[in-house]
Amino acid sequence: MSNISRLQPASPTPTLPPRPRNLFPVWLAALLAVLWLIVRDLEISFETLAYGVADIGEYFSRYREPDFSDLSRYLELMGVTLATALWGTMFALVVAFFMAPLAARNLSPHPAVYRAAREALNFMRAMPDLLLALIFVAALGLGPLPGALALGVHTAGFLGKFFAESLERVDQGVYEGVTSTGANFPQLVMYAGWPSILREALGYVLYILDRNVRMASVLGLVGAGGIGLALHDTLRMFDYGQSAALILVILATILIIDYASAWLRRRLG
Amino acid sequence: MTTVSILRWPTPNGLPPLPVVVSLCAVLGAMWLTASLVEVDFVRLAGSMGKMAAFAGHFLVMPDWAYLPELFDKMLETIEMTVLATAIAIVVSLPLGVLAARNATPHIAVYRVVRDLLSLMRALPELVWALVFVSAVGLGPLPGVMALALVTVGFMGKFFAESIEVVDHKPVEGVRAHGAGWLQVRVFAMLPQALPDFVGTVMYILDHNLRAATILGLVGAGGIGYDLVMSMRLFQYDRLILIALAIYLVVTLLDRLSDQLRSRIIHGART
Q1: What is the ipTM of this complex?
Q2: Domain range for B152
């Protein structure tokens, strides 16, 4: 691509400019070398994998007969999972609503506040939600509430960052216009900031809700309620029929949410 | 254009826009109805604040420095799993992305099938796949890499397809007018235009995979997650604080790096 764009128009002198060096093969070779080293270091043996394909096929065939006898319980667990995701997302939304204006460079009342808010959001984002769920389960006991809190804290970091970046992209004139009417910081945020990014923000919230439903279905692994715990238990007991049914329930729910949020996003433009 | 006026705020009558109010009420109603399911109990929440503080107090210990070399090993393994899974996913999802792009697919039926396949792959979270793969191929980083690669192919294939779908049609016609074949049109006209988007996608996926890889160890699929859970279960707070710090450092570093790279790609060199 770069070769073509750097070609000069025909010059009067017969000598062509030197051909630009194409470093692509070097980079590719380096990348492959690194990957090879990684495979060596992780002691991944593709031979065993190749020989194991038959075993894997046999293993997956055990999931062939989903056992839906307990469907009503699964659906109830899925309901708990969805509710956990919803509560987590709303918690994140509330936190992000207050943090994002502070973390937007052009809105923040003071550079120090901006730095602090940014770092706080970074920290929330960097802590994996399963680790947070472990901590909250230890402090609050088992149940969906610690899961919702963990999702909320983790995704508040994401939402806050997304919102802050959207707020930074808003045309500076909008802010100046509202400031010139004598608006203070909260008024500036409420009348210039949020209205300008409302649609983007809704898109982000949908994305986070989508993500939280996926995560909520595995949070059960650490005792934070929902369908993940049931799946973990049935896998532990080698009950492949019930595991298959649980996986299918999760799959169906996530696909439905996926289509619903895609439809909503299209409606939003 | 109608959606623009629906979401305008402040509205002419001075009230918040109706759709926003209605959906907010719906969400609040849903939260109120599900409060019992989630076992939301503000009294319990307030009562556990002391426990939380006590728990946070556990972290005020001297870190177990002797654990550092082992931590470094585990973190390296996590990063290696991330890179390997992302590389495998790139190789697999490039052709799938071409097949799943409406303007590049050989047939509309292929487009539909590949699209559905991709959404199936990304439907289940990595951890569920990791659980299944650990049962299938045993403990270690291999099932983790497989799970990460599988899920990210689903995401990356979709993102690639979407960036191929928005390429400018004129260069494609130009290349085709030279008598380029099917594959040549895709390689020399479509992919170069979508390349900047691809780089952004890869950075995003790398970030996502790193976060996922840190917790895959929870089910025995390699990486730092196993140590994380074990030190949590054994109340080894002197190790836990080091692990949490290491995760924070690595994730933040990659976050900054990908932010910079992305802004350089989007706004051109040097901003």
Answers
A1: 0.76
A2: 65-266
